[in-house]
Design a protein that fits this description.
This protein is an alpha/beta fold. It has a domain at about 30-125 and about 170-250: Glycoside hydrolase/deacetylase (TIM Barrel). It has helices at about 5-20, 20-30, 45-60, 65-75, 95-105, 115-120, 125-135, 145, 150-165, 175-180, 205-220, 235-245, and strands spanning about 35-40, 60-65, 85-90, 110-115, 185-190, 225-230, 250. The longest helix has 19 residues, at about 205-220.
Length: about 260
């Protein structure tokens, strides 16, 4: 992981949390079962993910699965003390060793939310094509800017870029997902088909992204898929309705708050 402004800011913020005593107070509140901590990753190194697992273990936290979290909420049971749930977005190929390998080693439940199209077709995630094109001066729009485009227009642009910019596979293969799912600690959830920003999609496209990704994953895994993660964390009531109609039990966003009763 390279040094960036975000890394530097995170370092100073974490130093402040330690020095101010806020971290100690937060740990005490978690120990009283006032909330559950939800931590999500994308493509961390093995060293980073393992260090996070070890930190929570060393500070007395217990890891619960997404299914256990949903069961707690449905049954209105008191939250367990010092609980944390781990999720991972996108389905990066390095998740196989850096996430699944560590999850099995430490017996930590993890849910990986995978986008099915990159898994099925290979190549890179759409934002990698956009970033490379911007680097080469082929487009002036940023990845953040493209996330605001209507989904059909963005897909047309990315399709053209993919024809001229060869990038290696970034997602796991179907076989790798099937192999990981045979383990005891990693389950898979849906992260749409093509990883669009759902709020930029038409009604039909949003519904198909939610429904078809579930069907595809279930065909690969030969088991029900109950959970979903919104790309970029963005959604409206429309997406919630489609999730209900498609038979999901819960969906994750990226709002930086604790899970409370």
């Amino acid at each position: 992981m390279g040094i960036s402004i975000r890394n530097i800011a995170a370092y100073f913020f974490s130093t402040y949390l330690l020095a101010s005593g806020k971290l100690r107070k937060l740990k005490a509140a978690a120990a009283r079962g006032e909330f559950i901590i939800s931590v999500y990753f994308h493509d961390p190194s093995r060293e980073l993910f393992e260090s996070c697992v070890r930190w929570f273990q060393q500070h007395g936290f217990q890891f619960i699965s997404v299914q256990e979290l949903v069961d707690l909420l449905r049954q209105s049971k008191p939250f367990p003390p010092s609980a944390v749930v781990f999720t991972v977005d996108d389905g990066w190929k390095n998740n196989r060793t850096n996430i699944a390998g560590i999850a099995e080693k430490y017996k930590v439940p993890v849910t990986i939310f995978a986008s099915t199209d990159p898994v099925e077709k290979g190549g890179a995630f759409w934002w990698s094509y956009a970033a490379k094109a911007a680097q080469k001066g082929l487009i002036t729009e940023t990845v953040s800017g493209l996330k605001k485009w209507p989904d059909t227009e963005r897909k047309i642009l990315i399709s053209k870029l993919a024809e001229t910019i060869p990038l290696q596979r970034e997602a796991m293969t179907i076989a790798e997902i099937q192999e990981i799912a045979k383990g005891n600690f990693v389950q898979f959830g849906s992260h749409t088909v093509t990883h669009p920003i759902l709020t930029t999609c038409s009604d039909l496209q949003s519904e198909l992204e939610i429904k078809d990704s579930k069907t595809t994953l279930q065909n690969w895994l030969q088991k029900e898929v109950h959970f979903f993660a919104y790309p970029n964390g963005l959604f409206t009531q429309r997406e919630i309705n489609y999730l209900h109609h498609s038979g999901y039990d819960a969906a994750f966003t990226t709002v930086p708050v604790y899970i409370t009763p």
